[in-house]
Design goal:
Layout: H1 2-25, H2 41-44, E1 52-59, E2 62-66, H3 69-77, H4 79-82, H5 91-95, E3 103-110, E4 113-117, H6 120-127
Antiparallel strand pairs: 1-2, 3-4
């Protein structure tokens, strides 16, 4: 019984931690998506690429940056194709009902959809049961 109480306490603490981190990650006025990385590059270059501050597009209340005008235009033409799932929050966290921040290098494309994770370790755990 003692262990069950500790588990509930830990789960509650992690929920507060993840929810708080999600708020911090999106607290800026322009809600910079993907920490400034180009969402289209995950599909075209198969890696995270930093976007440029002068190449942006808005989608669902967030500002996306792009490495090239061509990527910006591709996103503008089909944002649902390139925008990350779960509003850019960690896919593993969202599976547990937590809005956790992401690291741009902890990513996976599954069935043509971009998923991001809190870090590489969480990405590995999430990938074992997508």
């Amino acid at each position: 019984m003692k262990h069950r109480g500790i588990a509930w306490l830990f789960t509650g603490f992690m929920g507060v931690l993840f929810l708080g981190a999600g708020v911090i990650a999106h607290a800026s006025d322009d809600r910079l998506a993907l920490k400034g990385y180009d969402p289209v590059a995950y599909f075209t270059e198969k890696k995270p690429v930093r976007g440029k501050a002068e190449l942006t597009a808005q989608h669902d209340g967030a500002t996306y940056r792009f490495a090239s005008a061509a990527n910006r235009d591709a996103f503008a033409a089909a944002p649902a194709k390139y925008a990350p799932q779960y509003g850019g929050y960690c896919a593993f966290g969202m599976a547990g009902n937590y809005k956790a921040p992401i690291e741009p290098d902890a990513w996976t494309v599954v069935d043509g959809k971009l998923y991001l994770n809190y870090n590489q370790s969480i990405r590995s755990r999430w990938s074992s049961d997508v």
